[in-house]
Design brief:
With about 450 residues, the protein is an alpha/beta fold. It has two domains: about 230 residues, P-loop containing nucleotide triphosphate hydrolases (Rossmann fold), CATH 3.40.50.300; about 190 residues, 3-Layer(aba) Sandwich (Rossmann fold). Helices cover about 35% and strands about 15% of the residues. The protein starts with 9 loop residues before the first helix and ends in a 75-residue tail after the last helix. The C terminus is likely disordered. The structure holds adenosine-5'-diphosphate (ADP) and magnesium ion (MG).
Amino acid sequence: MTFESLGLHTSILKALTEAGYTEPTTVQAQAVPAALAGRDLMVSSQTGSGKTAAFMLPALHKFASAEPADESGKTPNQERQSARSRGDRPRFQAAQPKMLVLTPTRELALQVTTATDKYSIYARRIKAVSILGGMPYPKQMQLLSRNPEILVATPGRLIDHMESGKIDFSKLEILVLDEADRMLDMGFIDDIEKIVAATPETRQTMLFSATLDGVVGNMAKRITKDPLVIQIAGSATKHENIQQRVHFVDDLSHKNRVLDHLLRDETMDQAVVFTATKRDADTIADRLNIAGFAAAALHGDMHQGARNRTLDAMRRGQVRVLVATDVAARGIDVPAITHVVNYDLPKFPEDYVHRIGRTGRAGRKGLAISLVNHAEGMNIKRIERFTKQIIPIEVIEGFEPKRTASPSHARKPGGWKPGDSRSAAKPGQRTFSKPAAAPRGEGGGYKGNRDASAPRRSFTDR
Ligand code: ADP
Ligand code: MG
């Protein structure tokens, strides 16, 4: 299948050729024709599988193919301009976007906008802007006053603008929820409901999520009409292009030495190191800089300007090691990221999947390494149960842990007795034990997650 055969507008085809896209990815091949036909979509597909283009290309096609003029022969913007020159109004006119993309984080919103600009570079009439928390209001007012066709927004700030009458969704044709599961995790459900309620019933709705189970699935069914459900599983969800491994460490100093060693790997182009806390992200970035690595921290306490500058420096290759917390790194797409290091394990197994998805972008190979102390073995098991994959334990010569990496973590606190068949697994024979009764988010053994009991809301990127 080719992009031509999907029947996309020539201006988009030209941009895709220039972007080096030769053929649609699996999710694009399935989603684009249905979206072009106007259908609602519920899609789950792995990170890095090309979901942005899957929803943006059909939308851009629609806008690029639309008649530019209304019956007066003017586009809405020309109409506004002539109204202005007639002196008709000092009155503020609310922006009337045709498409709204909601994303959980600011970084992701900016990334979607950048991708949109790339895909629409030859479709000059189409403008896309990001509306984000942390950006100065006057700047956003200026962006909105250009009446862009496409808004990409985080829910919190968008609601502010809606409530002050700066945005009118009565002309909205397409609504996209990107990383819907994450938005719900972050406590955006009420905001999303409010935004959806402000859009016309006639809209086309496309929802993208890592999973379509549970709460997110229910919401998806509520806000879509007769949706086409696309679930791309198989090798994609197994992250076959991403090699995973665990290194056991004895203590912090051992962990830091292993980290330094890993970052000196010649095959490493760029890396993301994940920490549990913002403070650790700062401390480790500082330490790595002193050790001669071009490192930078990225977390939710940084001003938006600083976050953007850091990511730009990463994209330009000036930063080689990004030390980040989960929320800041969500959805980041930097193709040269070859290594992901879990300095601390994530709180939730699904975050593990998102973290490792920062590497192996667009079919490249990647390496995901977790540095784990012996007490955290259970958390690795939980991740393995979630991904239905065993993560091999490896030992680096010269950096051996004092304690062997035998499945000591599989033993119950009472220790195992010879003949106890459930505990008898040897290295290399690890099996999935029955699902733990512990609920998601149980903080029990999670060392290094000092804010493990903090509500998800604390991560909100408003
Ligand atoms: P997702 O949203 O599924 O995580 P993205 O939309 O961010 O994935 O795309 C991941 C990467 O793949 C991006 O760098 C994007 O430019 C690239 N990409 C997307 N579609 C194609 C394609 N058809 N051919 C080549 N690269 C692609
Ligand atoms: Mg995405």
